[in-house]
Amino acid sequence: MGLSQRQGQLFSETSLSDFQSKSPPRLDLSRETLENWQEKILTHQSTLSDETTSVVTQSSLFTESNTSLIDQIDPLKLTPLPLSFWRWPSSPHQGPAIYLVMDHPEICNAPIILYIGETIAAERRWKGEHDCKSYLSSYSEALGIVGLKNKLSIRFWTDVPKDTQSRRRLEQLLIQRWLPPFNKETRRRWATPFTVEF
After folding, report:
1. Integer distance in angstroms from the first to the last C-alpha of the chain?
2. Rounded to an integer, what distance in angstroms lies between the CA atom of residue 75 and that of residue 52?
3. pLDDT digit string (tens) for 18-34?
4. 35: Cβ contacts below 8 Å, ≥ 6 apart
5. Distance separating alpha carbons of residues 158 and 92, to the nearest angstrom
6. Residue of 29, 11, 28 lying closest to 20 (CA atoms)
7. Gap between the Cα atoms of 131 and 138, Å rounded
């Protein structure tokens, strides 16, 4: 079936060429850009890590304020797991949790927190779709393009409130403190160099 003569007239030649040339903006990535981005995050987060003492116990949740709680959480003392942990026959963590997705860049002397989240079911949270997964994919791809490696891990803190609203308040306080770049609340602050927001 041939195209109608009138079909081609829906767009003028100028508007059609404009439409065809509008491809997604090209990201200008370099090793230096990504390393500087990682170092800025580490600079902020390392000062906080030095101030923390230890992971709190469940009983502390009812005797201290949430602000005091976040001062006591040391993400580096939580056990790192691979991001594929949810494929294991049995999950090491069950039930409510706060989780932190981290990377330990080659140039950094400590891991950086990329994302903080909360869940009612730690054993199921990382299955399926998740905003953070697309950021991690772009991040990993960008590092690979410039010859950098990642050491991604996820860590769970399970001594958290069972009540969802309380857990979300704690999550927000942690996000405000650590400023992880993949949380929607802080993405603009760090201006991730490997994604383009439309």
Report:
1. 37
2. 9
3. 545 554 455 568 999 99
4. 105, 107, 148
5. 11
6. 11
7. 11
Structural domain range at position 46: 29-187
Mean pLDDT of 45-51: 75
Asked if the structure places residue 142 within a domain, the reply is yes
3-state secondary structure of 79: coil
Beta strand 112-119 with 97-103 is: antiparallel
89 found inside a domain = yes
Q: How many domains does the chain have?
A: 1
Residue 197 domain-assigned? no
Place of tokens 């998740």: 130
Task: Tally the C-alpha atoms within 13 A of residue 129's C-alpha that lie toward its C-beta.
Answer: 1
CA distance 39 to 27: 20
- Residue 136 — left, alpha, or beta (φ > 0 → left; ψ -120 to 50 → alpha)? alpha
Residue 175 vs residue 121, higher pLDDT: 175
Q: Determine the average pLDDT of the residues in 168-173.
A: 94
Amino acid in the structure at residue 80: P
- How large is the average pLDDT for residues 82-94? 77
Position 9 pLDDT exceeds 70: no
* DSSP strands (E only) in the chain: 97-103, 112-119, 153-157
Tokens standing for 62? Answer: 């009812």
Rounded-to-integer distance, Cα 9 and Cα 160, Å: 63
Contact 101, 80 (CB under 8 A): no
Instruction: Note whether residue 37 is domain-resident.
Output: yes
